[in-house]
Design goal:
Blueprint (H helix, E strand, L loop, with lengths): L1 H73 L1 H21 L5 H10 L9 H4 L7 H8 L1 H9 L6 H9 L20 H16 L10 H10 L6 H11 L1
């Protein structure tokens, strides 16, 4: 009888242990299923966020391209100039190994003069040199351009290029007379390309300078430019 009782207790304990294991497995599977459900939900949210970001990128690119087209209709010289500046800027950036996304730099260069949309056609296309007051009006294109894009979800480098590309390394530029490395590198780079293309392009009030003449002019005013980028520029364009 005692042996039967012992066997009964052992059998009962064995069944309880099995039931305990079953319960633990069931609970573990339930937790796994719940965790998988949470992961699936998070993945769905991430996919939705990614799609929204992709849509936003496409939207911003469309706005940029539309703005470039508007500028081209208003002032064909400026858009051709901007394309040239983009090409020169990319060459310098490549040689200087700058940590700037190539596509961002290209957009920055293409849009750097976008504020000229807000400048009168008379001032933009005047066939003789601008008067002092007209030159002050022309200088406003940096601020006008920045105001047009400041609330857009575009890279900061693009906004910096638009606002600061006429700042000079020696602090004599505009609109804020920034100096040295206080000027964002993208603006310091585009300034060199901007000036070089402007010098070598025919304008209504003067014939374009030769490459040699443009180099000499830039060299005489070298204090206005980032010295390291200027060295790269001369080596790249020569």
């Amino acid at each position: 009888a005692i042996e039967d009782l012992v066997n009964e207790i052992k059998s009962k304990e064995k069944n309880e242990f099995k039931n305990l294991l079953k319960g633990l497995v069931t609970k573990y599977q339930s937790n796994l299923n719940e965790h998988k459900k949470q992961i699936d939900e998070q993945k769905k949210q991430i996919d939705e966020q990614k799609k929204q970001i992709d849509d936003d990128v496409i939207f911003v690119k469309d706005i940029i391209l539309m703005t470039i087209n508007l500028l081209e209709m208003k002032d064909p010289y400026t858009i051709d100039h901007s394309k040239n500046v983009a090409g020169i800027s990319l060459q310098i950036a490549n040689k200087a190994n700058l940590d700037i996304d190539i596509q961002i730099l290209q957009f920055a260069a293409l849009l750097h003069d976008i504020g000229k949309i807000g400048i009168s056609d008379y001032v933009l296309n005047k066939p003789i040199k601008l008067s002092k007051s007209e030159y002050v009006m022309m200088q406003q294109h940096t601020i006008l351009g920045f105001e047009a894009v400041k609330n857009l979800s575009i890279d900061k480098n693009i906004k910096d290029a638009i606002l600061y590309h006429h700042e000079s390394y020696d602090g004599t530029g505009y609109p804020y007379k920034l100096k040295g490395n206080d000027i964002p590198v993208v603006a310091r780079l585009i300034k060199i390309a901007d000036v070089y293309d402007a010098l070598t392009t025919d304008r209504p009030y003067r014939q374009g300078f030769s490459k040699k003449e443009a180099f000499e002019i830039i060299q005489r005013e070298k204090s206005k430019y980032d010295p390291e980028l200027l060295k790269v520029f001369f080596k790249t364009i020569e």
